[in-house]
Amino acid sequence: MVPAPNDQRWRVSAFTRVSWRDGTIEITSSTSNITLLASDARILDLVHFFARPKYIVEVVDAWAHLPRSEVIACIDELIDARVLVTETSVEPTHWDPTALAYHQLSRSGSPVADGEESACTHVPGSGPPLIPLGPPAPPRNRDFADVLIHRRSTRAWPKCAIERSTFSTLLSMSAANRSDPFLLDDGSTSRPYPSGGAVYSLELYPVIDTDAIDSVDAGVYRYRPDHHALELLAAGAAASKPFLTSAAEAVGTGRPPVVLVISSRIASQSQAYHQIAYSLVLKEVGALFQTLYLVCEFLGLSACALGGGSPDGALAELRGEQIFDNPVVGEFALGPRGSGPARQIDGGRI
């Protein structure tokens, strides 16, 4: 370790994080891969001395009650871990400190060792009878390149219902479990979109408005990909209204007729992939979003992925669970497509 120069002032990095684990203080910076461990709480006082830029000698003199060499060595370690940076140091201010911390953590992990078992996937217990979605709509021919070219986000929906067979096709082509023996030879799950380790922690909760889908009542449902069916969680427009109203605020237009609220049984992903689990969940959400977009375009439906839009804790309350057991990780609005030009986001396509 090269001793820090005394001719410049040092300050605490904006990306410094302090946490406690098993009685030990952990200090790190999101811009470094070094974590300092300490059991003496005085380390926090030392770090706080640099809350405003100071010369090292100022701090050493203030800590004259401790051996000078020990204080300097501790400061050098803080600098080496980028907990302390120079007054003029240029930091990546385009990153939010929390986001960068998550990014660093998700990129540094390693998957579970061979032979280690993952947590079992949640199997819904006894509940209301399942509502079969019925057969998908008759197959149609459309060039895949044409679907890709015309994929877009739209957030305007005419006042007409989606045919039940069309909605069945959407979920079947996007999220249903597949049992093709040519795809699976080990009994694992497979769906149209990829998932890290084929864990498939995502669950879809269709929130449906009144008269949004033919022969499907308003309410909040759980999609059961193993049966290609819906399981009713809460019936009626009053149950769906909070979700649809929040989605309307997210898209900035009228209330969408259907919102797919996407959650993750993250414990199963975490058991298998530890600290990179959440990163894999978000990537899986992205893959599901694109799959939903392409199938909606193929079926002639309007679709828009949302940056948010679920009332905090509302879905967990309906399920009778804690909010972090099965957290919401995405929302996707959809509905019929009008005959006129669809309103597009921010004046363009995304």
TrEMBL record:
In terms of InterPro entries, this protein maps to: Bacteriocin_Proc_Enz, Nitroreductase, Nitroreductase-like, SagB-type_dehydrogenase
Q: Where is this region: Disordered?
A: 113-135
Q: Where is the composition biased (Pro residues)?
A: 126-135
In the UniProt record, the signal sequence range is: none
Q: Name one Pfam family in it.
A: Nitroreductase
A GO molecular-function annotation: oxidoreductase activity
Provide the Nitroreductase domain boundaries: 150-310
| Source organism superkingdom | Bacteria
Family annotation (PANTHER family): NITROREDUCTASE MJ1384-RELATED (PTHR43745)
Q: What is this protein called?
A: Nitroreductase domain-containing protein
Organism field: Mycobacterium decipiens
